[in-house]
Every structure is written in structure tokens, then in C-alpha cells.
Design a protein that fits this description.
The chain is an alpha+beta fold. It is built from 3 helices and 14 strands. The strands form 4 sheets. A 6-stranded antiparallel sheet has the order 4-2-3-12-11-13. A 4-stranded antiparallel sheet has the order 5-6-7-8.
Length: 219
């Protein structure tokens, strides 16, 4: 058998392996495209309390440097009183995506997480968990130093949000009908972090990509 044919046969497994690797890489890149697209956060709450209706099926909004869960749509055109600004009152609808956090070394465990905090002019902030209170907050890079900034990631199928590899999201009723988002970092029901008189419920957060309009750039 000519040497050229023998060499070709010997090289086939390597060629096939390389082709499969390239195809797998393309599939992986396709699956990961969603990470750089803006998405809202939808709230699921299975708590048996009637209070769950305050937030179940709702969304996450940003207000006063913290994240909240609500069933009130901040983009609603309903204005009950003259001069009432519903979006300013309820907050800015979360619209976030994954983005490398400077000097992080998480590898495949995840990335940093950013969200718009206003639309005009467009402005982004980092999402992080306060190391002392475990509140989920947003701020500039300088505001995040020393706090839990990642790694943020999603479950592979349902794309539920997680932090440092698990889902520890809870909400705390700060006042009647106002639910602030927390992350139960110690997995102890926020023991010592909130008052005993505060209601706490576990929640799940799922990403829902924002509808792309004509002319939008595909990242």
C-alpha cells in the first residue's frame, strides 16, 4: 500500500476528531449567545402563603441601588394621578446580561452580571450581593469592591439564574407589599440578617430575552 494512502488512513481519526471538535465548538458558541443578550428576570415563588401572589409571575426592578420583585409593570402607561411617574415609583425594569468582571478568574463557573439602570441616556451598573446584609444591589465598579460580584450563571435548560453555582434567592417584605431581593449566602434563612418580624420567601429567577426589534444588532 502506498505510503500516502497509509498516512491518509492514519490521519482520518485525527481529522474526524478535529471536525467534531469544531462542530461542538460552534454549537457551544450558539448556545452561549444568549449570555450577551439583554434579558428581564421573571420571578417564580412556590411559597404557600397568599403573599406569594405579590410577586409570583412578576419581574425584577431596580430602585434606590437595590433589586426588588414586583407584579407591577414599571412600563405601564396607567397613570392614576396627574404628574405620577410609574416607572420612577416602581423602579427600572431589569434588563441585564453576563459580562466579564475585571480581574476575575472564575473560568467556566460564570461571569459578572450587569443591567441597564436607565434607558435615556443608556447606562449600565454591576449586580452584586452585599457581603454584610446579603441584599442584591447594583452600582458602579467602585461600589462592588469587597462584595460578592460573581460568578453569575444560569442552569443549562431553564436558564434560571444562580450565583456561585447555586440558587439561593429570597425576598424579604421590607414594608407592606414591598419585596426586596436577597441571596441567602449562608443557606440559613438569612439568620441574623433581617428582623424576625420580616416575612421571607424563596424565589427562582429566570431570564427572558428581550424581544429583538428590526435594526437591533445581533451580538
Amino acid at each position: 500500500m502506498p505510503l500516502g494512502i497509509i498516512t491518509s488512513i492514519a490521519a482520518c481519526p485525527a481529522i474526524i476528531g478535529t471536525t467534531e471538535a469544531v462542530q461542538q465548538g460552534k454549537k457551544q458558541n450558539s448556545r452561549e449567545k444568549h449570555r450577551s443578550r439583554k434579558a428581564n428576570l421573571l420571578v417564580t415563588c412556590h411559597d404557600p402563603s397568599r403573599k406569594a401572589r405579590d410577586i409570583h409571575g412578576g419581574t425584577v426592578v431596580l430602585r434606590n441601588n437595590k433589586l426588588y420583585c414586583t407584579n407591577v409593570n414599571p412600563k405601564s402607561k396607567y397613570l392614576p394621578d396627574e404628574g405620577y411617574d410609574n416607572e420612577a415609583s416602581q423602579g427600572h425594569l431589569f434588563a441585564g446580561y453576563f459580562f466579564p468582571y475585571p480581574e476575575s478568574s472564575w473560568g467556566r463557573r460564570g461571569e459578572g452580571y450587569v443591567s441597564t439602570i436607565m434607558d435615556d441616556p443608556p447606562q449600565l451598573n454591576w449586580i452584586y450581593v452585599d457581603k454584610d446584609t446579603y441584599e442584591v444591589k447594583y452600582g458602579l465598579k467602585k461600589d462592588t469592591i469587597g462584595h460578592h460580584v460573581g460568578p453569575w450563571n444560569v442552569t443549562p435548560i431553564d436558564r434560571r439564574l444562580n450565583l456561585d453555582g447555586w440558587e439561593g434567592f429570597t425576598v424579604v417584605e421590607e414594608e407592606e407589599g414591598v419585596w426586596a431581593l436577597y441571596f441567602d449566602w449562608d443557606d440559613d434563612g438569612l439568620d441574623g440578617k433581617v428582623g424576625l418580624d420580616k416575612r421571607i420567601m424563596e424565589v427562582e429567577l429566570s431570564r427572558k430575552e428581550i424581544r429583538m426589534m428590526k435594526g437591533d444588532c445581533i451580538m
